[in-house]
Write a structure and sequence with these properties.
The protein has 417 residues and is α/β, with parallel strands linked by helices. The chain is built from 16 helices and 18 strands.
Amino acid sequence: MLLHSTSQLLTLAGGPRRGPDPVDLGLILDGAVLVRDGLIADVGSTQELLARYPNEQRLDARGKAVLPGFIDPHTHLVWAGDRAAEFEMRLQGKTYMEIMAAGGGINATVRATRGATAEELFRQTHERAEAMFRNGTTTAEAKTGYGLELQAELAQLETLVRLDEEGPLEIVPTFMPAHAVPPEFKGREDDYTRLVCERMLPMAAAWWKKRCPGKPLPFVDVFCETGACNLAQTRRILTSARNLGFPFKAHVDEFENLGGAALAVELGAVSIEHAVKTSAIEMQALGKSETVVVSLPCTPFGLAETHYTPARQMLDAGAILALASDLNPGTAWCENMQFVLALACRYLKLTPAEALAAATINAARAIRYEERLGSVEVGKQADLLILSVADFRQLAYRFGGSLVEAVIKRGHLIRVR
């Protein structure tokens, strides 16, 4: 089909954006896109493309803005249950780490997820995936990490593979058995690290190759934080993952700086996630590296914290900055990347253009999909959003609802409003 008569066609062509310079969105006024066989076949002005393809089936955008589908490069999509009671505890003054020490936090979700049947886990996760898609997320990274033992972790991985096969939301899985130390290993953290390295990672690789033959291995992620994995344990897990051929990421600097960002750059991580307490020296290293900084503004917002990723300093250092929801049951139950953009402009001090680039082409880089997703360029997958408004800046200006009128995923039009 030929999608035409857009008010703004935001192509984001030219690869990931980095550094402090103003972001070029590749804006085409009154733009048009030709879609064939699920791919973008041509891009230009409405006048040019209507003349070039007079017999093509047409879709009139009616003066609305069109942009690449949102990519959410950090979610904990698959879990069972909820932690609404802990939200009330936080309002009463309990910290996240205090709640974890009392048996809540991640371990509460671990108990619920371990106890769920495969169909219960799939149903609950499917509902969240549908909500993400309705709000304009066309591709999402999604982590395990609420099993913390091999079979429960593989059950989460199976749920993610099933969701991806069903669609329309495209899922990029991450294996994360080192999301926390399970309660049965309390005081034996090194033993759990050894189990992850010597059994869980090799078994996950073998399971994946049998379940998804020919597909690249999923990512591996580690939570490098006080109360989770220390720096030495993080190094061992990421090194083991790398030796097995896994690409890898790292949760770092959410509450304390343990040196995780520097370690991630040293080892060649695809991205670091959170990066709230990252040091100035580490920011300079990130600016010289290809490791993407994935900021998660919903998390400090959900915790009523005042410290966010120092995004402007990251950009000044030359880093590649992406945005994600951190969708999870404890701190950020948010399925809407539009709200992430709104927070990023207010608390990370990004411009609407910077926020949009961070949620599309830069987010694609954070999951190694920038060659086929994240921008409107010939040969890329036709994942597009048609907004209900003419100006993309409304996405960050307004919040609390959805401005996505229709989603095009792999060339298929899906009305969501």
